[in-house]
Structures are given as structure tokens and as C-alpha cells.
Specification:
Elements (H helix, E strand, L loop, with lengths): L17 E4 L4 E4 L5 E3 L14 H7 L24 H9 L3 H19 L4 H16 L8 H16 L5 H7 L4 H14 L13 H8 L3 H13 L1 H7 L3 H16 L7 H8 L3 H14 L12
Antiparallel strand pairs: 1-2, 2-3
């Protein structure tokens, strides 16, 4: 019988103090001593380890498959090789495999700089491999491809990151990343839904040190102004910044922040922030006195 802990109660005395004895292969009650099950099969390893180093040396299974590694993590682990052997190992790889390795390293570097979770790295690696199969990487630098693909993956997974934020950690200018982004959408036939500005609000409020009241009020403003935002086609980061400023204005001086600081956090300009603020206030038909924003 397979070793199990599914029995939670002693059939003799009703006690829940059930003990599994792997040495003797028994399941018994610690109160009355009744042996509930015997001849259990232990599915664990046959070896013992007293620390993590011993366990890593004796274990015979590897990590799960990952697209973030050029060979998907399926190659046999090798001990540490001397520098000369590692150079020979690198030179033995063909050019396509070297390019893939460099691209995956770049994905990991940029994702770490943007503080993105591992599933974003995994999805971006899958997208890059798909582009390689369709021969879409020729004539473009790896940096601009990776930057555009990270932005696409963030949009697909609902992670709020702007092109400007990605360009700041990338080695390529914003215009090239935007051009590659549009080209990938067209060639890979990817359709992205418009980004919800409310997704940016928690992160912006956290960086500005604002309270939960302002955050919730700003999200409510976005939801109430949904039709206005959708028809205008505004950039989500600027819209989120305007909603935050409007929420702070409604909260009073305690939550007041300078418009330049809000614009800097949102990656927009004070002029854009001012225009979006006026439109939101007009759409909600509010009659409030501005602080730092003049009609």
C-alpha cells in the first residue's frame, strides 16, 4: 500500500493524532496505539541527505522545462568546466543558437530591471521563439525586438508598463521600439485590447505615497469616465495621472501633490496632465477649485 496521510481519525478511539512511521511502514494512533495501516510504500528517494548541498548532489531529476533557457533546460548538467572548455563549447554552437542565447539573456535583464514576474519572461521567450520560426528577426537588432516583445507580453498579461519605461532600460530609442512593436503586431497577427488606465493607478499612487482613499477614488473616476476615455483614445498613463490628480483635488490639501511630480511618475508632461484633468472634470460635471491647474 502507498504511504498516505489521508486517514485523519483513528477508527478505534476517534483521535486525530495519527502518526506516519516511514521506518516501519505503518500508520498508527499516538493515543491508543492502534496500528491503522501497515506495509506502506514510501515513494520518496532511497537516499538520505542532511543538508541542501548533499541533496543537490544526490538528486537525479532536474528542473522543469523552461523556454527562458536556449536548450529549454533539457540538457544534461555538467560540472564546472575550465575556461578553455567553455570557450570550445560556445564556439561549437551555431549562429542561430548564439543569437537565441543572447536574446534570452537580454529578456531576463530587461525584465529584472522592470521588476517583471517570471511568467512575463517565460511568455516573452515563447513569443521570441515564435518570431524566429516565422523569420521575423532578420534585419532587426535583438534589443529592439526584445523591447517590443516585452511590451506586447505586458499588454497581453495586463501588467502596466509603458513603452517609455521599457525604452529607459533598453539600449534602443523609443521610435525604433514603437516601429518594431507595430510590425510584430501585424506579422504575428496579434490583437491587443486597449489598456485600462485603472491598472496604472495603484503603482502610481504607491510611488507618490498616496493613501488608499485616493487610490480607490481615482479608480472610481476612471470607471465613471469610461465612455469619455474610450472615445477620446487617450494614452492610459496620462489618463491615470489625471484621475489621480482629480482624486487628490477632491480630497483636499492633505493629499495634494505638485502636478510636475505626478507627470514625472506617470511618464507624461504637465501639459498633457492638465488637458486630461480638464476633460475628466468636464465629463464628470464637477465644479471644484483647482490647485496649480488653471482653466
Amino acid at each position: 500500500m502507498i504511504m498516505t496521510n489521508r486517514i485523519r481519525e483513528c477508527p478505534e478511539c476517534g483521535s486525530k493524532n495519527i502518526v506516519t512511521d516511514p521506518k516501519h511502514g505503518e500508520l498508527y494512533c499516538s493515543d491508543c496505539g492502534m496500528v491503522i495501516t501497515e506495509n506502506l510504500v514510501d515513494l520518496g528517494p532511497e537516499w538520505r541527505a542532511y543538508d541542501s548541498e548533499q541533496a543537490s548532489k544526490r538528486v537525479r531529476t532536474g528542473p522543469p522545462m523552461s523556454y527562458r533557457i536556449h536548450d529549454k533546460g533539457l540538457s544534461t548538467g555538467m560540472p564546472k568546466l575550465p575556461m578553455r572548455a567553455r570557450r570550445l563549447q560556445w564556439t561549437s554552437m551555431d549562429s542561430s543558437e548564439k543569437t537565441l542565447t543572447f536574446a534570452l539573456v537580454e529578456i531576463d535583464r530587461m525584465a529584472c530591471a522592470l521588476k517583471l514576474p517570471n511568467y512575463i519572461k517565460e511568455a516573452t521567450s515563447v513569443l521570441y521563439r515564435k518570431a524566429v520560426k516565422q523569420k521575423l528577426i532578420k534585419g532587426r537588432s535583438i534589443e529592439e525586438l526584445v523591447s517590443a516583445m516585452l511590451y506586447i507580453t505586458c499588454r497581453q498579461c495586463g501588467v502596466p508598463r509603458t513603452l517609455k519605461e521599457i525604452a529607459e532600460v533598453s539600449k534602443m530609442p523609443l521610435r525604433k521600439i514603437r516601429r518594431t512593436y507595430l510590425s510584430l503586431l501585424r506579422n504575428l497577427e496579434i490583437k491587443l485590447a486597449p489598456t485600462d488606465p485603472a491598472r496604472y493607478i495603484p503603482r502610481f499612487c504607491s510611488e507618490l505615497g498616496l493613501s488608499d482613499v485616493v487610490r480607490e477614488r481615482a479608480i472610481k473616476i476612471i470607471k465613471e469616465s469610461g465612455e469619455t476615455v474610450a472615445t477620446k483614445g487617450w494614452a492610459p498613463a496620462g489618463t491615470a495621472a489625471a484621475a489621480i490628480y482629480l482624486a487628490m483635488t477632491l480630497s483636499g490639501k492633505v493629499e495634494y501633490q505638485e502636478e510636475k511630480k505626478i507627470a514625472t511618475v506617470a511618464g507624461t508632461t504637465p501639459v498633457t496632465l492638465r488637458n486630461r484633468y480638464k476633460e475628466l472634470k468636464k465629463g464628470m460635471k464637477l465644479n471644484i477649485r483647482d490647485r496649480g491647474l488653471y482653466d
